[in-house]
Amino acid sequence: MGMPSGGAKDTIPPVVVQSIPRANQTNFKGDQVRLYFDEFVAPEKLSEKFVISPPIEKRPIFRTKGKSLIVDLNGAKLKDSTTYSLDFKDAIVDNNEKNALKNYRLAFSTGPVLDTLRVVGFVLNSFNLEPSEGTYVMLYKNLSDTAVTTTKPDYIAKTDANGFFAVTNLPKATYHVYAVTDNDNNMMLSSTAEPVAFLDSTVTPSAKYSPHRDTTVVGMDTLLVFGKTRFYPNPLYMLQFEQPFFNLRLDNEQRPTRKYIDLAFTQSVKDTFDIQLLNYHPKGNWKYVEHSANDDSLRIWLTDSTVYKKDTLQFRLTYEQQDSTGAKYAYNDTIRMFFSDVPTDKKKGRRDRKKIEKKDENINLSVMTRANGFDVYRNITVESPEPVKNMDTTMIHLFVKQDTVFNPINFKILPDSVTKRRFYIHYPWDYKTTYRLKIDSAAVTTIYGAVSDSTENTFVTQEEEHYGKIILAVKNVTVPTIVQLLKDDDKEEVLREKTIYKDGTLEFPFLEPQKYMIKVIFDRNNNGKWDTGDLQAHRQPEEVLYYPEVQKVRSNWDVNVPTWQLPAQPVYKKEIIDKEKQEEDAKKKKKERNKKAF
Fold first, then answer.
1. 532: closest CA among 163, 127, 223, 133?
2. Confidence band of 227 (pLDDT split at 50, 70, 90)
3. Alpha-carbon gap, residue 387 to 208, rounded angstroms
4. Around Cβ 579, how many Cβ atoms within 10 Å?
5. DSSP states of 314-354
6. Is 162 helix (H, G, I), strand (E, B) or coil?
7. What is the pTM of this model?
8. Which of 183, 157, 128 is nearest to 235 (CA)?
């Protein structure tokens, strides 16, 4: 006695046995489409994935009945003498095992002619060449540059997980082609915040039939003749980008302590920001403004004690804004900031209040080192919690351990280019050597008169054998080219970069033993960074390219990368091979096969 096994698992997707209208039917006049299957089916995110081209006025309604799927056009009127293409992607699955019917399309015509031309290609993220999924590709017969922002497209398609699209069943015409991430679902580019791609030239699809003879003989003297239809243009590659758009506003304001306020903006306020105190008029300068690296966050240090002692401060912020015509103007914003030393807990008494109001006369400097393995190519970062007013360099000492004795050595103190709270200790460190940094008390005085406590750090530098090196020769450099060394992960953090202007050999020394990717940016405007595109200016984003292999760096090893011949034409593929991973996968598969055979 036992339980029945139930048979083999169902792995076969549903099969369309009939459709109304029939595939490629002409003169169709119905208001709904019905598909019949060989088993019960269910829609799987069908409303998100389904695309009908040309687009109709209303969204279709989907429902199942028995072994059929009904696409109700929801009262939308189909155009006369027009070929429609219905793309279901992989959104139809069987009812039990969810096996998907992939890439199913149904085409029909409301007139006597069925259009058969097509435009296919890929939409990729212009910055990292990753596929752009769920993007609408839009074809316009209207060749005006503003058509994509003012009218709905004539034909559409949607990209899949590989960024692939196919706009099928097109009539012969000339089109402008765009790719838009339609965040508001209005079938237009309605905001500069929506990523977009465009082709520099128009597209006119066509097809050419090429008959060729087969060697199979039928009867005594008849040859079977087969043919092949080639569609033009060749697959398109579209680089999607986010346009530069103006969206500057105050995002957050805080006063965490008496001595400063923090302001966060949505975009950079470099050279456009001003702040004035409204409810008090101090004599002389009352502030020091500390900018973030991107100039989108500001810390306003209140340097006048008569100002920061006030519980309530009112400010007028001035920064740039843009009107509906695109013209820039100075915008004034008023904010009120409050801070109190009184504890919010009513249970606390006067003794607790005095503790809160008591001033800290000394500060602790933060010294950023590692006890073991400090990198020889780094500077020591020293940071103060408050802006530095004075520094007595004679009270900062650096020693090197020789035998058992720490001997003083000369070094450089470098100021930070962004903030007065930070400075660096520079020295050409030796490998595997013990150093000691000693900062005497009162070496640093802040703008509030606070002095630093003494601090002492002993650390050992990294040994030479720990590091690896990548050596890369680059040829066919025709424009300023930024070569980046990236961390081999999804974030692709930039670890090192160098700009080259001609053919040559690059070295990336002092590398941690790990995997790296190599990327280049064709910096055509030579501004030292990657620039996005601009649809209005008809400017494409700057091209990027990845070296086709991941580089594995080992300790005490030089990786000589095969010469990279940069292509004369753009390459839109991101196929990076990890040979070590391939070998590991091959070993695992071989081991699994051996287990099964045993």
1. 127
2. confident
3. 73
4. 11
5. EEEEEEEEE-TTS-EEEEEEEEEEE---S-S-TT--HHHHH
6. coil
7. 0.85
8. 157
